[in-house]
């Protein structure tokens, strides 16, 4: 269970996130929506450790994460796609994913055993990396350097690296942003598949209400840094407070 309690951050006199308390259970996908400047990405940054909270706490499965670095939170089970971009831009796509797989696994690569054991372990890591690349439709680009990838393939690689780390919590901040109509379905299909694993928690910041409607089990709405609605998608989208706070976007989607 991921939980934030009274999570707050102030920038001078501006309160960007104001006392947000929320719990996110395994087996659910929660969409976080709201107008531009509502505090959605800032809330993500507080959870993942990119920003230091002015007040409040973040915990995962009873472990207090507040005060930990982003990398320590990743080791604890938080996974956020953008943290992983350009891991090694001059290495190939396959090498990047294999390194991410390697970071989560015990094996001969950690213990310096004989060459046969190291080769066998390396083969298993490569096979897992190949499987992930096939899942994100990047197998044909496995020998390309990360720096040479177009934007859409970079977003796919972010998801691949996130999958390789096998986190307890997947955090997606507009995962299809900048993708064309042919690329976006690959990422959305992956999220649908991740939803099937009821041990995982998924948080999704998304502006496309059709995507939210389809994928979300629950919606929370932030407005001016404050949690203003929380519940099932149809109920939340139809609520007057959301129709007002979302500047007409939810109202149009509901029409």
Description:
GO terms for molecular function: ATP binding; ATP hydrolysis activity. InterPro entries: AAA+_ATPase (IPR003593), ABC_AA/LPS_Transport (IPR051120), ABC_transporter-like_ATP-bd (IPR003439), BCA_ABC_TP_C (IPR032823), P-loop_NTPase (IPR027417). Keywords: ATP-binding, Cell membrane, Membrane, Nucleotide-binding, Transport. Residues 2-249 form the ABC transporter domain. There is one protein chain. By secondary structure, the chain is an alpha/beta fold. It folds into 2 domains: 1-77 and 167-255, 3-Layer(aba) Sandwich (Rossmann fold), CATH 3.40.50; 87-164, no CATH class. 41% of the residues lie in helices and 23% in strands. It contains 11 helices and 10 strands. The protein has helices spanning 40-48, 70-76, 93-103, 108-111, 115-135, 151-165, 184-195, 209-215, 233-238, 240-245, 249-254; strands at 2-11, 14-24, 29-33, 55-60, 63-64, 78-80, 169-173, 201-205, 218-223, 226-231. Strands 6-7-8-3-9-10 form a 6-stranded mixed β-sheet. A 4-stranded antiparallel β-sheet has the order 2-1-4-5, with helices on one face. Strand 9 and strand 10 (226-231) form a beta hairpin. Helix 3 (93-103) crosses helix 5 (115-135), helix 3 (93-103) runs parallel beside helix 6 and helix 5 (115-135) packs across helix 6. The longest helix is centred in the middle third of the chain and has 21 residues, at 115-135. The radius of gyration is 19 Å and the shape is globular. The chain starts with a strand and ends with a helix.
